[in-house]
Design a protein that fits this description.
Layout: H1 2-55, E1 59-64, H2 66-81, E2 86-91, H3 97-104, E3 109-114, H4 115-121, E4 127-135, E5 139-142, E6 156-160, H5 163-175, E7 180-181, E8 194-196, E9 202-206, H6 211-214, E10 220-223, H7 225-230, H8 235-238, E11 241-242, H9 248-252, E12 255-260, H10 267-276, H11 279-288, E13 294-295
Parallel strand pairs: 1-2, 1-3, 6-9, 6-10
Antiparallel strand pairs: 3-12, 4-12, 4-13, 5-10, 5-11, 7-8
């Protein structure tokens, strides 16, 4: 009987020890797995921190026109701050100094111009576009008349008198079916390239900045987006027609972020461009400028 009891106790003890051993093994495995997960998470976090730290403490100086470029950059500044990048916006009221200080290295980039203007500057310099951000559409504004569909024969339409802007104005008039411009003239068109003028429209060439002041003296005026905005015109409410985002003019004259050649792939510059083409900036542009500035990304 004693042998039977001893055998039973031994079996029970063996089972108990086996159960404890199984539990300990499971706990050890779980602990090992948890440690592995924590290690992986810590490693990922370290990698992320390392990527951020590469840009943390970076300062970027960008030359810009006050409106809308500097205003848009200040929105991008908030995004860059989250990455540890400090953006300094240096405002210029002219179109010469921003390129000169970018070329000299006084600033890291500029944002104020379209590609044709950059190409003109680059005839003797070496700046490059990082990418397009927005365009400022030309619009047809009412003067003494306001009905484009029933435009009167002999109506006077004022357009910019410089080659580049005049071509955009003529192409916009052509897009409305008011005139026909010679095939191939594109964005070099002049009034000499008008092949059909069924309404005998009188095209009056005026210096671009003066157009808003002459609206009351003509039937219609085709005005640059920036000058219309400065004069208090609402592109969304006042313009009778505007350039489409897919038009040749919009694509050609989009305003671009510009740097000295060789810096276009710098991580900080790429971060700046990513911020400028973010949803936050797009929402800001669309809600602030009433169509006078249009994101092109």
């Amino acid at each position: 009987m004693k042998k039977l009891i001893s055998a039973t106790l031994a079996a029970t003890l063996a089972l108990s020890l086996a159960a404890c051993g199984s539990s300990a093994s499971t706990t050890e495995a779980a602990s090992s797995e948890a440690a592995s997960s924590e290690s992986t998470a810590a490693s990922s976090e370290a990698e992320s921190t390392a990527e951020t730290s590469e840009l943390a403490g970076t300062t970027l100086k960008v030359a810009a026109s006050p409106t809308p470029h500097a205003e848009i950059l200040n929105v991008a500044k908030e995004i860059l701050a989250e990455q540890g990048i400090d953006l300094e916006v240096v405002e210029f009221s002219d179109y010469v100094q921003p390129n000169l200080v970018t070329e000299s290295g006084e600033v890291d980039a500029n944002y104020f111009q379209h590609t044709p203007y950059l190409d003109s500057f680059n005839e003797e310099n070496g700046l490059v576009s990082v990418g397009a951000v927005h365009y400022e559409p030309f619009g047809i504004y009412p003067g003494k008349s306001s009905d484009l569909e029933n435009i009167a024969d002999g109506a006077t339409i004022a357009v910019p008198n410089d080659t580049t802007n005049e071509a955009r104005a003529l192409q916009l008039l052509a897009a409305q079916g008011l005139i026909t411009v010679r095939d191939g003239a594109g964005l070099t068109a002049t009034i000499n390239d008008i092949t059909e003028n069924p309404h005998n429209l009188q095209i009056k060439e005026i210096e671009a900045a003066q157009l808003p002041r002459t609206v009351q003296d003509v039937d219609f005026a085709v005005i640059n987006g920036n000058y219309a905005m400065e004069a208090g015109f609402s592109v969304g409410k006042d313009a009778l027609a505007t350039e489409d985002a897919s038009s040749e003019a919009a694509q050609t004259y989009a305003n671009v972020l510009v740097v000295k050649e060789g810096r276009e792939n710098d991580p900080a510059i790429q971060a700046l461009y990513a911020a400028l083409t973010s949803d936050k900036v797009k929402d800001y542009i669309n809600s602030t400028y009433d169509g006078a500035v249009v994101p092109i990304f």
